[in-house]
Amino acid sequence: MKIHYFQRYHGKENVATANTMLLLSRLYSYSSDKFFRFLKSEYFADSFEPEIVFKLQEKSLDSVPDATITQEGFKIVVETKLKDWFYTDQLMRHLKSFGDEKNKVMITLATEPMAEEKLVDFETQLKTYNENQVHPVIHINTTFEAMSNAINEVIDDRDYEMQDVLDDYLQYCYSDGLILGSDSWKYLRMQLAGTTFDFNVANHVYYDNAERGFRAHDYLGLYKQKSVRAIGKVCARITAIETETGVHYVPEFGEVTKERKHLIAKSMENGDSHGYNLRTIEHRYFFVEKFYETDFKKITPGGSMGTRIFDLPQLLGTDDIPETEQVAKLLAEKSWS
Fold first, then answer.
1. Is the pLDDT higher at 80 or at 158?
2. Which listed site, 34, 54, 60, 100, has its alpha carbon 20 to 30 Å from 299?
3. CB count, 10 Å around CB of 25?
4. Quick check: is 169 in a domain?
C-alpha cells in the first residue's frame, strides 16, 4: 500500500496550505539549490544565501495570513483560497506581516486565477502602498497547478524522492479538486517501456501500478534506449484487478468495452511473461488511439530513470496541437535533456 505524504479529503484551506508548505519544505530539504531555482524562476531575479523558516498562520499586527516563508533579506506571505475568494481588505492587512526585508512577495494561491476586476483593485491599492515603501511588495497570483508546474521544471527524472513527493501532491490536488485537469491537453507524459515496448505499441495500451500518482495528460510517450520512440493520444484510462468473482474494472476516463477488457486480459498475460503481477496488484491501463513512431532523443549523458512531463505548446511553439501523427514527426526533429 502506498504511503501518502499529504493529507486527503479534508477540503479546507488550512489543509491545502499545510500540504503546499510541506511540498515546498520537502523541496528545500531535498535541495536548497533547486528550491531557490524555483523561487528565482517564479518570483525573484537575484541570488540568495538562504536560511528558510516555514510557518503556518503567523500572527501579524492586524491579521493572520495562512503561511509565511521567511529568510533574512526576503519574506513570502501566502494567502490560500479553495476558490477565488480573495478580498482586498484582508490582503491589504496582510501587508503588515512584512518588515524591512529587501525582497517581499505576497502569493495569492487558489484553484483559479483571481478575477481581473478584483486583481486590478488590489494591485491599484498595493501600488499606492508601495509608494511609501523603501522595498516594494511584489504580488504573485498563482494556482496550485502553476506552482506544481514550476517545481516540476526545477527537478529532473533522477530526483526520485522529489518526483514521488510531487506526484503525491498532484494526486492530492486532483482528488481534492484543487487542479481541475483542464490543461491536460498540453501535456505529454513519458513512461519507461523497454521490455514491454513492442507489446504496448502493437496493442495501443500501456499499464502501470495504480498506486502511482500522475498529472492529467492527453498524450503518452514510450521511452527506451535514450529516446521517446512512440507517442499516442489517450482515449481511455481504466484500473483493473482480479478478484474471487472475476476482474474488477474501474473506468476513470472512457468506457469499459469488450475490446478493452480483452486488451487488459492480454496485458495481464504479458505481465506474467515479464514477472510483473498485474493480476492481484491493481494496475492502471492507458489506452491510446494509436501509437505513432517518433525519435525524441535525450541528449544528456545517462538514460532516463523515471517519468517525465513535457509541455507540448512550449516544445512545438504553438497552442494549436496538430494531429498526433504530425506531433510525432515534429518531436523527431527535437531533443531534450
1. 80
2. 34
3. 15
4. no
